[in-house]
Amino acid sequence: MKDMKMLKSILTPALIALSLAGAANAAQPAGDAQLSSIAGVPAGQYTTAELQQIIIAQQDHDAATVKFYLSGANRTTAPAVDSSGQLAALAGVTSGDYTASELAQIIDARNEHDRDRVSYITSGTNRASNGTAGTVSAGDAQIAAAFGVDPTQFTSAELSAMWAAAHD
Questions:
Q1: For 25, which DSSP code?
Q2: Rounded distance, CA 90 to CA 54, Å?
Q3: What is the rounded CA–CA span in Å between residue 109 and residue 119?
């Protein structure tokens, strides 16, 4: 047992040194080929980290871990988590109706007991856009009338710029 720990303490730094030396090469690192040989697996099939784990598991006689890496089970990915669905659940609203930013704002507003802000966001009022061409507010209509232009052809910023230029 003591010999195994000593072997492990010698091999682990050696494996790390091999992997660092191998990382310097752009193509298949020579260190990976050596690690593959030590692990008894085909070169190029496993990453340096996987090879190190396989070798350590083999030294520890841990068949389950060896099988885990050799089978590729460590490479399987879990299904993507629907974070907006989780946020919607926290916000107490239907998933898919709001952006992640709106959901965060709703959660913050509820935590602060700010019913007005919650209503503002959930009503969709926050999405109303007065700054795009084609949308006409009462102020835009008044400025456009003063210049004799169609207010739907200009944004609020453009109409304001026209007003500022005329009154400088």
A1: S
A2: 42
A3: 10
Token pair of 78 as six digits: 């879990």
Query: Residue 98 and residue 89: Cα distance in Å, rounded?
Result: 12
| Cα–Cα distance, 47 to 59 (Å, whole number) | 18
Q: Please give the structure tokens belonging to residue 51.
A: 């090879």
Enter the tokens of residue 21: 């030396």
Instruction: Say how far apart CA 81 and CA 123 lie, in whole Å.
Output: 27
pLDDT digits (tens, 9 = 90+) for 70-100: 888 887 765 545 566 788 888 888 888 888 8
Please give the Cα distance from 118 to 79 (Å, whole number).
31
144 compared with 7, residue with greater pLDDT: 144
DSSP one-letter code for 125: G
pTM score: 0.34
